[in-house]
Specification:
Oligomer: single chain
Largest sheet: none
Radius of gyration: 25 Å
Helix content: 55-70%
Shape: elongated
Number of domains: 2
Strand content: under 5%
Order of helices and strands: HHHH
Structural class: mainly alpha
Length: 96
């Protein structure tokens, strides 16, 4: 019995395609094989075979980001010292 196939045309970002092609090549696969595998898993699982979510930052992360912004502002205003050189930071810590 002959196997019937159909073509699917998909528009993707050029850089994404290149990166994915290189990864698949390292795995010994090509894009067509990967998509066939993904489609088989979609059918087998009865849905998308991986988790899709839009993670929201938790309260602790939001607080840390806010603190970071405050520190940056204080450095700009000269209220706090900032460092671009780790050796200078340690030197100042040693002198405290």
């Amino acid at each position: 019995m002959a196997s019937l196939t159909s073509a699917i045309n998909v528009q993707v970002d050029t850089r994404d395609k290149e990166e994915a092609t290189n990864l698949l090549k390292d795995l010994g696969l090509n894009m067509s094989t990967y998509f066939n595998m993904a489609l088989k898993q979609l059918i087998k699982k009865g849905g998308i075979p991986f988790e899709i979510n839009n993670p929201k930052p938790n309260a602790e992360l939001l607080e840390a980001l806010e603190e970071g912004e405050q520190i940056i502002q204080e450095i700009k205003e000269g209220k706090r010292k900032g460092y671009h050189d780790i050796d200078k930071l340690f030197e100042d810590l040693d002198n405290e």
